[in-house]
Amino acid sequence: MLIRFYRRLINLSVSSLLRKLSEKFLQIKYRSYAVAKKYDWDWESKGFNRVALVNQLLFESGGWNSSYLEIGCAKNDLFFSVGAKNKIGVDPVEGGTHRMTSDEFFSESSAKFDVIFIDGLHKYEQARSDAFNALERVALGGWVAFHDFLPSTWKEQHVPRLQSTWTGDCWKLAIELCEAKGLDFKIVEIDFGVGLVRKRSHDWVVPDMRDILKDADFEVFANNLEALPLISFETAVQFINHGNLS
Ligand SMILES: C[S@@+](CC[C@H](N)C(=O)[O-])C[C@H]1O[C@@H](n2cnc3c(N)ncnc32)[C@H](O)[C@@H]1O
After folding, report:
1. How far is residue 123's CA from residue 168's CA, in Å, rounded to a whole number?
2. What is the full DSSP assignment across 56-125?
3. Residue 89 and residue 192: Cα distance in Å, rounded?
4. How far is the centre of ligand 1, averaged over its atoms, from the C-alpha of 76 (Å)?
5. Do the bridges between strand 183-188 and strand 194-199 make them parallel or antiparallel, or are there none, so unpaired?
6. Is 74 in the pocket of ligand 1 (CB under 6 A)?
7. Would you say the CB of residue 91 lies under 6 angstroms from ligand 1?
8. Residue 175 parent element (H or E)
9. Does residue 72's CB lie within 6 angstroms of at least one atom of ligand 1?
10. H/E element holding 184?
11. 134: Cβ below 6 Å to ligand 1?
12. Rounded-to-integer distance, Cα 224 and Cα 84, Å
């Protein structure tokens, strides 16, 4: 028993050491992308997280009778905390209800949803394609939310991934959503930044800025931060329940 315990401990520390070494190696390899700017978002101090926000969205969309889709479920930390009778979770690796990628799911299902949470592959192009598919499938007046729109350092958002805490570069999609038509867009300042989109029209348009954003680095995020529509959780609740902030 004791020997098994020590063996597991040694295996664990060897694998975490190897992970740290490979992270260090990648950080050196990509150091030309380094940007000194840092943000101390202090997520712990906010008192709310994505679970609280998604449940606010579902409450506003019909509560228990609403329909919910989550892209990327992992350990079901969010999925199991969502109080909706009709819920689907899509993940090729673990969690949720459908073992497949988001692209596979959207190509085989035309189901409609009241609330969709996008938290799958955190790369701009994939988050963008998940967003477009989700906006097609969400009801008019319904919500699409996105995890991880507010990275704190260049390393945290770098693609490929350089460390275990990783938002990816989906912040680039946030810049496009600022210019969208037929959609309301905010970013709630909780839990690595939760993007919140309400579908106002079937004729919504999100501009295509891929040429500019594809290779943009963290400096571009820093330069655009002031223009992003950041709101607190309390203001988000007002936005969700009344549709505007007045
Ligand atoms: C950050 S985790 C999700 C966390 C979860 N939503 C939560 O709030 O606890 C990201 C998950 O996305 C999954 N994923 C990766 N690529 C995906 C894809 N193309 N489509 C759907 N899910 C994907 C991964 O397997 C991983 O479990």
Report:
1. 6
2. HHHHHTTGGGSEEEEE--TT-TTGGG---SEEEEE-SSSSSSB-S-HHHHHHH----EEEEEE-S--SHH
3. 21
4. 10
5. antiparallel
6. yes
7. yes
8. helix 171-178
9. yes
10. strand 183-188
11. no
12. 36
Domains annotated on the chain, with CATH: 43-242 (3.40.50)
**Per-residue tens of pLDDT for the chain, all 246 residues:** 566 656 665 666 887 888 888 888 888 888 888 989 999 999 999 999 999 999 999 999 999 999 999 999 999 999 999 999 999 999 999 999 999 999 999 999 999 999 999 999 999 999 999 999 999 999 999 999 999 999 999 999 999 999 999 999 999 999 999 999 999 999 999 999 999 999 999 999 999 999 999 999 999 999 999 999 999 999 999 999 986 554
CA-to-CA distance for 2 and 146, rounded, in angstroms? 44
pTM exceeds 0.85: yes
Question: Cβ(92) to ligand 1 under 6 A?
Answer: yes
Say which amino acid occupies 190.
I
Residue that the structure tokens 């496009």 belong to: 176
| Cα 182 to ligand 1 centroid, rounded to whole Å | 28
3-state secondary structure of 132: helix
Residue of 49, 81, 119, 126 best suited for mutating to test ligand 1, as the one with most atoms within 8 Å of CB: 119
Short-list 44, 46, 39, CA closest to 235:
46
